[in-house]
Fold this sequence. Notes:
Blueprint: E1 4-9, H1 13-24, E2 29-33, E3 46-47, H2 49-56, H3 66-73, E4 75-77, E5 79-80, E6 89-90, E7 101-103, H4 106-120, E8 124-126, E9 130-135, E10 140-144, E11 147-156, H5 163-167, E12 174-175, E13 181-188, E14 195-200, E15 203-209, E16 214-221, H6 229-237, H7 242-253, E17 259-268, E18 272-274, E19 279-280, E20 283-285, E21 291-292, H8 299-320, H9 325-328, H10 334-356, H11 361-375, H12 378-389, E22 428-432, H13 437-444, E23 451-455, H14 467-470, E24 473-478, E25 484-489, E26 494-495, H15 510-524
Helix pairs in contact: 1-4, 1-8, 2-3, 3-4, 8-10
Amino acid sequence: MMSTDVIVAGGGPVGLLTAALLDAAGVGVEVYERDREFDRHTKGITVHPRTLEVLTTLEGGDGRRLGDVLVARGMRVRSAHYAALPARLDYSGLDTPFPFGLMVPQWQTREMLAEHLRDRGVRVHYGVEVTDVVQSGEEVRIRAGDVPRTARYLVGADGARSIVRAAAGIDFPGSNPTMIGFVADVEATDPLDGVEYFWNDAGYVGYMRLGETSIRVFGAKSADTGLTSQEVRRRQAEPFTLAELSTALTRICGRDFGVHSPSWLSRSGNSSRHAERYRAGRILLAGDAAHIHMPAAGQGLNVGLQDAANLAWKLAAEVHGWAPEALVTGEFGYDSERRPVADRLIADTLAQDALFNTFGRAAAALRATFSRFIERGGEVAAELTGWVSGLGVGYPRPAGAHPLVGTRVPDLTLTSGSLLRTLRADRFLLVDLTGDRGAGAALAGLGGARTQVVTARPVDAQDAVRGAAWHGVRAALIRPDGHVAHVTTSAGRLSETGAETGAEVEAVGGGEVRALAGAVAAWTEPDRRTAPSGDL
């Protein structure tokens, strides 16, 4: 007998969000975390806008959305850094309810998710490590501490040294570290306000104020770059002390800000590794179990949380028996969509590594040039802002599909509420943007157990933010993770999950409704198959 539908190994933010979204989709889930207590070290500190949007789809026990709960705990920052360059990425004009980065200690994000699961009755077992992973065609068997457990699926969110990944036989190729950096949360008797960056031939330091007297500093000494892997291991084994931090700050910043009373002192590296696949049979990987890289602007945490958002609804569909093959082994599957994102993540952090950890006149000139590209705005700044914020991250669309397919949907205003707060992990939204009662009545008939039909105000062509992309859209099918699955337009041509149909459609014609019905079925009805899912 199955103990549960899904076991999640790893109780960090990625594992907990995966469990929360699975639970929201009606899936039985348990979490096992090897540590007995929360690590209260700050670690990741930045939550980007797209992550806040995903959290807002989950309702807490007090009626508030988790995105709102987290915002109340953190500090809003209207910009983000890229490789600690002087010019910052501007979030203030982004098309989102959260046009800011949120500075909040990672343990608070984890604590909020743990509280949510506790309120929902989802069991999180602390101090229990998942081992002895064996899967068959029907189940996954594990040992949780001393107790054998079985589930239909296992999600490995158990970090860079993932036991689950190793048990599944998934390789983790990549590059060894060539430098040692540092990060510290300390008290300061002479703190600066806001955010500052310091560079000279001795190294670089990023500085941010966290509270009245608390600061975070991170950086690297130039002497700790360009190392061999043996040198890195030796330096990594040496404890990072307050005295070493003070000396580094003095040499790079000209003063040490009166640092004292550290709550966290740590060394960091620049290893980059990426799982060769994200799924082996009934075992799936997410977060650091799937990809690691040099820390840069909180991207690892946020990309890991977006892994959870992509994985959970698809796995829920598979558990409930309605997932079409395209969601399991095909072009819209978890591995197919998320592996390319992590490929870019690693390439992006390698580029930042070069900007961060190269010194001398040539490196300074490169940073100045790159900073000017960001400062002047335009395509470079927009591309980087979309990437780091997460709002510009989309999934490949089939040949001939409408340009909106695969992109993240904006928070459209509905006749009742907003799109973001209407999304749920267990259903698609079919958004009626026709502004026509007759069309609305026809579209309403397409609703069902896995599709909710909602009405939104048509997008005006003069809308400076959305007009070019969304003007003329008559209906859009939105996935549970907030990405566009299908679009019909006023031109009468239909973009489905596959190629352009080329069908001419009347304003409220049966052809349009039939095409939409076909799109809904393609995403929400299982293919005729006899075997359960295989590898992605």
